[in-house]
Amino acid sequence: MAMTAAEVLKMAKDNEVKFVDFRFADTKGKEQHVTVPVSHFDIDKFESGHAFDGSSIAGWKGIEASDMLLMPDPNTANIDPFMEETTLFMQCDVIEPSDGKGYDRDPRSIAKRAEAYLKSSGLGDTAYFGPEPEFFIFDDVRWGADMSGCFVKIGSEEASWSTGAKLEGGNTGHRPTVKGGYFPVPPVDSFQDMRSEMCLILESLGIPVEVHHHEVAGAGQNEIGTKFSTLVERADWTQNLKYVVWNVAHTYGKTATFMPKPIVGDNGSGMHVHQSVWKDGKNLFAGDGYAGLSEFALFYIGGIIKHAKALNAITNPGTNSYKRLVPGYEAPVKLAYSARNRSASIRIPHVANPKGRRIETRFPDPLANPYLCFSALLMAGLDGVQNKIHPGEAASKDLYHLPPEEDKLIPTVCASLEEALEALDKDREFLTRGGVFSDSMIDAYLDLKMQEVQRYRMTTHPIEFDMYYSV
C-alpha cells in the first residue's frame, strides 16, 4: 500500500513518535542516517527535504560543493524496532539542490533511473528482483593491522574448532561439522530462535519472509529468504534486512557479518539474485525455449555473461569477494547457464507456473550495494536483449569437474577486485545509457575501490611469514 506524506505524519502522531530518522545508502551500500525530533518534522520535509553535508560521504562531493538534500520516501516509513525512544525511519533519495534531480552518485537515485530506463526502452515496464543474502553470526571477532603486525580471531561456540573449548555451563558437543551446516535440527543448529525473531521483525516492517535456515558453513552461517519485489523496493528491503540481522544479533550479544569469506576452508556467503522482466502484466522471461525460457530471457542471460567481468566490480565489490570466487571450490565462477545445475553462474530455477519463470545470477555476494547491483544486472541484461546476444548452449555437465580441454573453453568471472575494476573501466557504456550511471560516478567508484585494493596490496599478511620467513 502506497503511503502519502500526510499518512506518515498521522502515523507519527498515532504512534507517539519522538524522533524521525532519515536514512540513505553511501556508494559502498552502507546505510547512513540523521535524526530530527518530531517537533521539527512536518510536511515541509517531504517538499523541501533535509539538508546535509555531502562532502563527508566517501566518494561523493568535494568540500566546495557539499550541500545536498535528503528527500524522504513516504512509502518506506516504518517504526524502528530497536530504538529506545519511539523512532520513525524512512529511506531517502539524495537530491542535488541546484536542479532538484537525484544526485548522480546517489545509489537509490541510480536505481530509480534504471527503472525509468527500462520503461523508456519499451522493452518492459517492471523488473523484479529476489536476492538471497547469506550471513555469518559469531560470538566474538577481533582483528588488528598496524606496523607491529596483524591478526584476526573469530570466536564461535557453534564452530567445529570449539569442540575442545571449556565453556561456561559446559560444552554440550552439539555443533555442525565443517561444511555440515545444511541443515540439521537444533541443538546442532543453534540459531533457530534468533532467525525466527529476525523474521518476525522483518514481517513487522512489511517485508514478507518465505523461509529461514542454517546454511552450509558450520560456524554460524545463516540465510533468511524474503520475497521478490520491484528493483528500488527490493533494494530498500535488502538494506532493512541487513539492519535487522545486525541488530537482532547484537541484542543477543552476538555479531553478524555479510562478509563473503570470513572463514578459511568453509563455504563463503553469496547473494544469489533472481530476476525477471515484465510488460503489461506478462512475464517476458516465460517461453517455449530451454527450461521454459523465452528468447528475451536467453538474450538477457547473454548480456549478463558478456558484461560479467565489469559487473563483478559492482556485484562483488570487495577484495574479500574473490576469496569466495575461486575455481574448484563449488563457487559459481563459470560463466554459463543451466536449469537446476548449481555449478553454473546463472541458473534457471524449476517452477511449475510460467509466471514464476526467472533466472538466478549466482556470482553476486552480499557486500554489493543492492541499488547498484540490481541496476547493473538489469542494464547488462537489457543490453543483451537490445543487441540479441545469445548465450550459446546451456551447460548440462558438472562444471566443477570438467576435463582441462573443456574447462578452458568456458569463461570465468574475475579473479580479483583489481581485475574487475579494470574490466568496469573498459566496459561501462552499457551502464551509462539513459543517464542511469554517469561516467563521473563510475570514475569516483573506481577510485574509491582502488584505495581498498592498494591498502590490501600493501599490507603484509601473516601467511607470507609462513611461506617466506625462512627462505
UniProtKB/TrEMBL annotation:
<feature type="binding site">
    <location>
        <begin position="274"/>
        <end position="276"/>
    </location>
    <ligand>
        <name>ATP</name>
    </ligand>
</feature>
<keyword id="KW-0436">Ligase</keyword>
<feature type="binding site">
    <location>
        <position position="355"/>
    </location>
    <ligand>
        <name>ATP</name>
    </ligand>
</feature>
<dbReference type="InterPro" id="IPR014746">
    <property type="entry name" value="Gln_synth/guanido_kin_cat_dom"/>
</dbReference>
<feature type="binding site">
    <location>
        <position position="132"/>
    </location>
    <ligand>
        <name>Mg(2+)</name>
    </ligand>
</feature>
<dbReference type="GO" id="GO:0004356">
    <property type="term" value="F:glutamine synthetase activity"/>
</dbReference>
<keyword id="KW-0067">ATP-binding</keyword>
<feature type="binding site">
    <location>
        <position position="272"/>
    </location>
    <ligand>
        <name>Mg(2+)</name>
    </ligand>
</feature>
<comment type="similarity">
    <text>Belongs to the glutamine synthetase family.</text>
</comment>
<dbReference type="GO" id="GO:0019740">
    <property type="term" value="P:nitrogen utilization"/>
</dbReference>
<keyword id="KW-0479">Metal-binding</keyword>
<keyword id="KW-0460">Magnesium</keyword>
<dbReference type="InterPro" id="IPR004809">
    <property type="entry name" value="Gln_synth_I"/>
</dbReference>
<feature type="binding site">
    <location>
        <position position="360"/>
    </location>
    <ligand>
        <name>Mg(2+)</name>
    </ligand>
</feature>
<feature type="binding site">
    <location>
        <begin position="267"/>
        <end position="268"/>
    </location>
    <ligand>
        <name>L-glutamate</name>
    </ligand>
</feature>
<feature type="binding site">
    <location>
        <position position="342"/>
    </location>
    <ligand>
        <name>ATP</name>
    </ligand>
</feature>
<feature type="binding site">
    <location>
        <position position="215"/>
    </location>
    <ligand>
        <name>Mg(2+)</name>
    </ligand>
</feature>
<dbReference type="GO" id="GO:0046872">
    <property type="term" value="F:metal ion binding"/>
</dbReference>
<feature type="binding site">
    <location>
        <position position="324"/>
    </location>
    <ligand>
        <name>L-glutamate</name>
    </ligand>
</feature>
<feature type="binding site">
    <location>
        <position position="342"/>
    </location>
    <ligand>
        <name>L-glutamate</name>
    </ligand>
</feature>
<dbReference type="GO" id="GO:0005737">
    <property type="term" value="C:cytoplasm"/>
</dbReference>
<dbReference type="InterPro" id="IPR008147">
    <property type="entry name" value="Gln_synt_N"/>
</dbReference>
<feature type="domain" description="GS catalytic">
    <location>
        <begin position="107"/>
        <end position="471"/>
    </location>
</feature>
<keyword id="KW-0597">Phosphoprotein</keyword>
<dbReference type="InterPro" id="IPR027303">
    <property type="entry name" value="Gln_synth_gly_rich_site"/>
</dbReference>
<dbReference type="Pfam" id="PF00120">
    <property type="entry name" value="Gln-synt_C"/>
</dbReference>
<dbReference type="Pfam" id="PF03951">
    <property type="entry name" value="Gln-synt_N"/>
</dbReference>
<feature type="modified residue" description="O-AMP-tyrosine">
    <location>
        <position position="400"/>
    </location>
</feature>
<dbReference type="InterPro" id="IPR008146">
    <property type="entry name" value="Gln_synth_cat_dom"/>
</dbReference>
<feature type="binding site">
    <location>
        <position position="362"/>
    </location>
    <ligand>
        <name>L-glutamate</name>
    </ligand>
</feature>
<protein>
    <recommendedName>
        <fullName>Glutamine synthetase</fullName>
        <ecNumber>6.3.1.2</ecNumber>
    </recommendedName>
</protein>
<feature type="binding site">
    <location>
        <position position="134"/>
    </location>
    <ligand>
        <name>Mg(2+)</name>
    </ligand>
</feature>
<feature type="binding site">
    <location>
        <position position="223"/>
    </location>
    <ligand>
        <name>Mg(2+)</name>
    </ligand>
</feature>
<dbReference type="InterPro" id="IPR027302">
    <property type="entry name" value="Gln_synth_N_conserv_site"/>
</dbReference>
<feature type="binding site">
    <location>
        <position position="210"/>
    </location>
    <ligand>
        <name>ATP</name>
    </ligand>
</feature>
<dbReference type="GO" id="GO:0005524">
    <property type="term" value="F:ATP binding"/>
</dbReference>
<feature type="domain" description="GS beta-grasp">
    <location>
        <begin position="15"/>
        <end position="100"/>
    </location>
</feature>
<dbReference type="InterPro" id="IPR036651">
    <property type="entry name" value="Gln_synt_N_sf"/>
</dbReference>
<keyword id="KW-0547">Nucleotide-binding</keyword>
<feature type="binding site">
    <location>
        <position position="330"/>
    </location>
    <ligand>
        <name>L-glutamate</name>
    </ligand>
</feature>
<dbReference type="GO" id="GO:0006542">
    <property type="term" value="P:glutamine biosynthetic process"/>
</dbReference>
<dbReference type="GO" id="GO:0016020">
    <property type="term" value="C:membrane"/>
</dbReference>
